[in-house]
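Aim 2, interim progress. The first record below pairs a target sequence with its structure tokens.
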Amino acid sequence: MKIGKRYFLILKEIVENSDNITGKELESKFHLTRKQLSYGIGKINDYLESCGYAEITRASNGKINVPKEVVTEIDLAELERENQEICFSKEERIDILHLMLLTSKEELSLQHFISELKVSKNTVLADLKKLDHALPQNQLGLSYGRQDGYTLSGSEYAKRQLLITTLGNIIIQYKHAPIVAEICGLGKAELTEMRGLLTNIEEALGIRFVGEMLEANSYLFAILFRRIQEGLTLDEVPEDLHLVGETWEYDVVKGLTENRQIGSEDEIMYLTAYIQGTKLESARWVRDAVNEFRLRRAVRETIGNYEKFTGITISDKDELENLLVHHCGPALYRIRYDFHIGLDITKYVLPAYQSFHELVRKSAGPLEALAGNKIPEKELVYITLIIVSFTMKEGMSVEDLRPRAIVVCQNGITVSRVLLSLLKELFPGIRFVKCMSAGQFAGYQEPYEMVFSTIALPTGQKLYVIDPLMDEKQRKNLREKVLKDFQDGNVADLGRDEVIKMANGFVDGTMYPASHSQKQEHGKLHLKDILKSKHIRVMKEPLEWQEAVEFAAVPLLYDHSIQIRYVKAVIDNIITNRPYLGIADGVVVAHAGVNDGVNDVGISIMVLPETIPVFDYLEAKVIIVLATPDYERHLTALNELILILEDDKKLGKIKDAKKPEDILGLL
């Protein structure tokens, strides 16, 4: 058991000066308040108890009483090696400052911050300056007075919103739950009680929170109940929050918190709204059939928009719909009430999937209408990841020959699916058979040879503990470790040749398989790189819609971007599936699937002299034929094309074009 660097130093000071050390001396040496020292001694005693030693006590005169065996038997050198200091990043320091400012019951000075963060005065001042600059976006402000020290000004509602984000970052992203317990003075009994309350809520509602949220929610509810008991109650709530009082969840939460003596209905509604927005691992039933119907309709429309904007035809829409409904149910509550619960993964995702993300943003109008608010970037990025991970699923042609692996992730369904997709890309020679939570893993009976998990687990098979959002260096290290284990025979022989063969596909020591690297060598394809004069036709005579599609596709046949069967697939798609292919007024983007005869990315445009009906459900003045051999390389160019079509003046110029150069001049 580790006790942390700070508590190790306190224990070391006590052991080395066991004859005459006092509490006052420890408070002065380590810049601690009496309460902080009491908490620290409690943590030390937890450690001593785990080792079979008696507790350290504090006499009424302040003297510290140390059991003799603690002085004579504890190996301080070994304990120091086990408890090296954590070096906080800038982001971690800012969140710890937030937590201290939000929860401290005493005046905070620079010395308090320096002591907690273990950095210089200048570093703390720089962090406070950055924090102060960012607070207004949370409707909060930072103040300093000689008597009160550093304090946050603003409404209780705004402070709680920042508290939710801060706890999510520290507990879920940084894995520093013990620091939260230390700063807030939360004991095991209090946290266990909160976990029990949340478990009762799960049981009553027929839901299960994702593993990461149960822990984070235990800390949050403990802090919120303390605030309410101390009189730090809500002074305002959004108007939409009052709708919560009419829900079944409100009755459940109210009943289970009656013994907390929460007098204000606003407080019950706030707690209920938070529960409604918490990410779920599973739900046994749907309570509100009308809301689910509306959600499914909005999700289907969003998927349809995405297909329209990207030129991608999703074969199994039902599966994607179910995934999005599962995620978006709680997400719409978060958006409506401005709760962001869980990891903010924007900076991890957007660099890799910016083009996808822009098209998801254009597609998500039905979900925004249902939520009643614009979807924040940090929420929209989760929807992007669900769609990306679904549309980029790889085939499983060598399933029976590959070793079987399972993925255990406590970070929710979205991050789990992204992690699964990443691992499939890193290790195409491994068969990933299941992605699950730690709770599901405990009862999993199917055979497997290895486990990739975000937490340590008891298993007799090979276990790789990984970060759910690995950076490039972590991916490279994981790949090398797995391949070494295969080559050394530390993983089951089944499929080892496949994995070792796969290792030869890695180029220049990077993390990507050769096929992916080769694809990346082409870089982003811009519209000007794809659309040339030879791809544009301006017709003088009207055509029937099938003939118009065929003529529009001819330039792509000439440059071998597509095969003749692709043109037939496009027409069959319009007739059979009736996809909504209109991307702007009078503009139809015609496409088929990536496996329907595509050789390379291609875009061609044909302008007709007059508007024609397309299979009686669309009208076209401009027909664009789009072809792509995968789900990604065309997206940058497509985004650029959509921006042109969304500009009414430029769209008018395309419809009125007399020659290809009139259109090329808009690029």
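The second target in this work package is listed in the same format:
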Amino acid sequence: MRNHKSSLRKVVSLGLCAAMLLTACGKAKTPQTGNTEASGGTVAAEPATSPSEAPAPAADAGLHNLEDGVLDIGTSIKWDSLTPFRSQVANNAPWAAEVYETLARLTYDKEYVPLVAKSWEGEDDGVTFNIEIYDYVYDAAGNHITAEDIVWMIESNMEAALKPSFGKVESVEQTGDYTLKVVMKQDMVGAFEQILTGGYVISKASYEADKDGFATGIVSTAPYTITEFTPGATMTLERREDYWQKPELIHPSCSANVQTIKYHTITEASQAGIALETGTLDGFITLDHNTVAQFEGNDKFTYVATPFINGSQMFFSGHDSRSIANDVNLRQAICYAIDAQGLLNAVYAGYGQTMKDPIADTSVGWLEKWRSEDYYEYDPVKAEEFLKASGYNGEELILLGGSSSQMQRLAQMIQSYLMAVGINVKLNLVDQALLTSIRLDGSQYDMFINTVGGDMLPDHWSIRYDMNAYKTGDGTARHDEALAELLYSTWTREGFTEENIDKVHIYLKDNMYAYGMVQPSNVDIWRSDLGMTEEIRISQGSHNFAACSYQE
């Protein structure tokens, strides 16, 4: 039996004796060996104490120099609806953990800590898990949360089928007023933990009584309530004075140290820079890398660059209607033709590193030895050789991607690199709604630029390469039985070994179903006079400004 003091490190130690990689070996502007570096400005160092070891911040920790009493934070992420039953898109929204609670939280140092769940245990079969929640959980309207609400929440997510993690649940049942049992479909490292961290806890009665299903307002157990919401634009949060959890049991990563915080969605990079310089914003989460340059040498601002959980990858169609699906030489030619370091410098202003696998090196299971491997380093001569060996006859290949300004720059550079070796590329850059609707349909493209990550390798593998993950096949409509068998034998707790993980890596690299290009750094910035004394980050690396501590 396994208790709730589980962490990703401990899960992996059952089969993989490898150190957890929380930092990346860097280029000129990438943090190295756990330190944070950037050019100019005031650069914050890594906290001396990890979040799991740090004492809980004082409940009355204040914010310095806020004339209106509101902490204004910018972000490029937007929610058009507050519904709790949502897809994984924008699941790293900075306000998500402040307006919705989950059963547990994954911290920045990859530890699972209790939130609404008091404890959990896994049975020896690897698929059965027992959860106990606190018996005094109440939402902002005074609704008492019981195991019935949690069972309903899990079943509703299973029915909605918007989060792949809930598709891995076989059954869930209430076993007591505050206990329940979850049975997973298969033994898969990290799958149950995604249930702990992926479902938003709300009262069934409160949700069903709301006429629009919490689309514009939320009643949740979280420490903040929403006082103002303009879809896709702004959201104002006010700290609850009647929050249910006992102060001594609140983990630092779950703290609510800001009375009022307002999030502003700004998707245009130049506008974000202006808003910071004019004082409209006090900080910005995941600032565009090229905009960071205007704050270099400006000691009025502090910025931090950390390795991000997401990478920028190219996935190749696996649909039989696209010739590239069965032409490994063409796929390899494309990879050799792309200068990943050039992409890093031009698109991400040097903040980050080139990749050695389609998954970022922050993921548990990523092997250090990959760092020294040859991985399709830029070589136009090799690209032309592989192109000659392929079945390519000059036809136009479709490159699918999002429509953000950063994605446009990335796609245009890739198009230029490929044209230089004789590969014709047509760009199809679409808005997020259309991208979401066609991204799994490999018949719609030859290449697809995506920015995906995962806390663990099996998480990434299951949503991208499992031929049984979707009705159409894997994430690109490919059906590879050999890869599926390899995945299924590797991602069990017993099979998750360094040897097996490396076999998957080699198989993907040899067949080149996906090419890891750039792992950008995540850059957060804030006014230095806020007096931040302790940095708290979410598991993806971004700062949780509400949980950070500030001088009085």
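Residues 122 and 129 are 4 Å apart (CA to CA). This observation will shape the mutagenesis plan for the next reporting period.
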